[in-house]
Write a structure and sequence with these properties.
The chain is mostly beta strands. It has helices spanning 78-81, 110-113, 198-206, and strands spanning 2-5, 10-19, 35-41, 44-50, 91-94, 104-107, 117-119, 125-127, 132-135, 141-143, 148-151, 162-168, 192-194, 212-214, 222-229, 234-237.
Length: 251
């Protein structure tokens, strides 16, 4: 069980980095107290500690079954830049073994199949020869500032390996409205809209800065202000609104 602290209003996207195989974690007792177990292999001692999440504390849960939110197994267009055996980093959804349900995610030999890469200074593809990547880039989670998060997942290894996870945060929701308001209803597809305090937006355009605005409520999408007409009290965005706003709503 790993604690993650979110210090900003975030979209949270989970990513996994894998080395060859997976490491098993400990479990909790029936009264939900953590159990510490120790095992020895050659000259090494391994300690395992974990606690099960209570059902009422679970914000989101998924697996690898059909219909679940599944991770993407490729890394940023790996099909374009890498040979076929590296497209998915040696990862596949399988029915060979599972903790619950019928399926699990199997990872094979990341040293031969790694899908993580970058570009060198000459623009050539440079593959990380040991790391495989998977992420839930299409699954975004909305939460308030300062939210404490825990993430747990179950793994089994047939050898030595390591799995790490991380998250990306960014401006997420319609949670930071401006004092300016819409002076007319806004429909989907409109780029030019009438707003109050148009001078606020003009300052950004005059200074050559991009002011990004939410183009819909809820799941975040944005565009930036391209033009301002002070006489008509309108602003024009780089792309059309993807949601509706009512007259009087905050921009």
């Amino acid at each position: 069980l790993v604690q993650i602290r979110c210090n900003i209003h975030t979209i949270f996207t989970i990513m996994f980095l894998s080395f060859v195989a997976l490491i098993t974690s400990g479990f909790a007792s029936s009264d939900n107290k953590p159990i510490l177990t120790a095992s020895q292999s050659s000259g090494y001692v391994k300690l395992e500690w974990a606690v099960e999440m209570l059902e009422e504390d679970i914000l989101y849960k998924t697996g690898f079954e059909e219909g679940d939110v599944l991770p993407n197994l490729n890394y940023s267009s790996s099909e374009t830049y890498l040979p076929e055996n590296r497209w998915y980093g040696g990862q596949t959804f399988t029915t060979k073994s599972s903790y619950s349900g019928k399926r699990s995610l199997e990872i094979k030999n990341t040293y031969k199949n790694s899908n993580l890469y970058n570009f060198d200074l000459d623009g050539n593809v440079k593959v990380n020869e040991s790391v495989t990547w998977a992420d839930f880039r299409d699954a975004r989670y909305y939460m308030e500032n300062g939210t404490d998060l825990s993430l747990s997942f179950r793994m089994k290894t047939t050898g030595i390996g390591e799995v790490n996870f991380g998250g990306e945060g960014g401006t997420a929701d319609y949670g930071r409205p401006l004092e300016a308001t819409f002076l007319e209803d806004v429909n989907v597809g409109e780029k030019t809209v009438k707003v109050s305090d148009v001078s606020f937006f003009k300052k950004y355009v005059d200074e050559g800065r991009r002011l990004h605005l939410a183009t819909r409520k809820g799941r975040y999408a944005y565009a930036y202000v391209e033009e301002v007409d002070t006489k008509k009290s309108t602003i024009t965005l780089s792309q059309g609104f993807t949601g509706e706003f009512k007259k009087g709503d905050n921009v």
